[in-house]
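Recall that a protein's primary structure is simply its ordered list of amino acids. Everything else, from secondary elements to tertiary packing, is in principle encoded there. The following example makes that idea concrete.
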Amino acid sequence: MRFAGVLAITLFWTATALADGGAPPPSNPWPTAPPGSDLPQAQGQALTPRQEAERIYALAFDEVTKARKDLESGKAKNAEKKFRRAQERCAHAVELDPKYYEAWNILGYASRKLGDYERAFAAYDSCLRLNPDYAPAREYLGEAWLERGELARAREQLAWLEKARLEDYVKMLRPLVEAYQAAHPDSAKVSQAAPGGQ
């Protein structure tokens, strides 16, 4: 009887995954599992600072994933707690390894979701200084600029993604830019008239 119950649950989740196409939605900010999620934990063996940063980042990654699900379910308070834990963990990860650009990116994302834009922009800046071609940070930075009412700066990130032909990220940011322009037609005119496209 117990086996039948486990089998039924397994079949249900398999059918659900197949019905959803078996793949995460395109708005998933991470194309693969985070580094550190499969680190071996040998007993008595100390991790290097990078390995420890990856371990902490993997925990933060899980927190953000859960927080996003909470937001989708209307559980804003639970999401906020998880974003705060992710923010703290990523901050610790970049203390251990300041060159860990993926952790800087998720620090920016969690900070933005908490309304801490100053910290978010600083984290995205750190990420992109380390890896200017990191598309997830470009897309998130575009979202952040829109949230702050800076259409021209969001368009800069969209233009970068378009020039790099990163269609998955373009498909995420372009509709947000277009929706913002439709909701704020005056800002679109000001943005187009700004010198140098700024």
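Confidence is low (pLDDT under 50) at residues 1-33, 193-198. The chain is about 70% helix and 0% strand.
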